[in-house]
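BUG: 3D viewer hangs when loading the predicted structure for this chain

Environment: internal workstation, default settings.
Expected: structure renders.
Actual: progress bar stalls at 90%.

Input used:
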Amino acid sequence: MRNESLEGLRVAVLAADGFEQVELTSPVEDLEDRGAEVDIVSIHAGRIRGVNGMFPGKKVRVSRTLDEVGVEDYDALLLPGGLANPDALRQNDRVLDFVSAFNAQGKPIAAICHAPWVLISAGMVSGRRLTSWPAIRHDVLNAGGLWTDEPVVRDRNWVTSRGPHDLPVFNQAVAELFAEHVPVRVEEEEEGGTLGVLVAGVAAAAAGYAVWRYLQVRADRYEELPEYTSPAPAPVPPPTAAAAAPMPVVAPIPSSVTPTADVEVERVVIVADAVDR
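Structure tokens produced before the viewer hung:
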């Protein structure tokens, strides 16, 4: 496993409410550990709610909204999955324009789980080889894509994966793809000159700011859910007077009496009256 450096790479993580939590947090932490600058971009400001399967997860602070950014602001794009998240994104024209522009410029795109829904709605899947959560394979095929059941699939500027169980290999594949697009920085030609000193000072200040921002962002990005406690059981109500009253006893018919229709009718009436009380 290679340890690609992503210093200077700017990554947009495009997500909405209902993203699969680990499909955002795991790749983001891996990218930041490699030196990338990561923004959570969404269709609205504030925070977006993640999920763990069918259960609520953490809220994540949105760095910037789509109204505030352009494709030129980022070098790479990450699309986490979930059900509600890509379903909301694919219905937004700004999202589709943003993703399409990324692809048109040949910038790298990583998508996992249900996120290829966004690529489908952007009209980008035809003729491309990719994978996804198996339940949407027919959506990929119907859109003209070449679906394959593999942990990770690399096709030119795309890398796709099936789901959370593939995250270790997905994260590595994302790092390898993104590393090919790290911006090239101009190196100073002379060491020791005024320009060299100035560049070194700026670089040191930038490095210090990057470390501060990394620690601040990671501490502030996620909002933990309060610890779940099961509710106290409801008190059992006391029995009502009717429920507590003993049932009347129906006297048996003496064996010396020969049952007749009248006796049987009287017995039924007595029993029915006792039940009503």
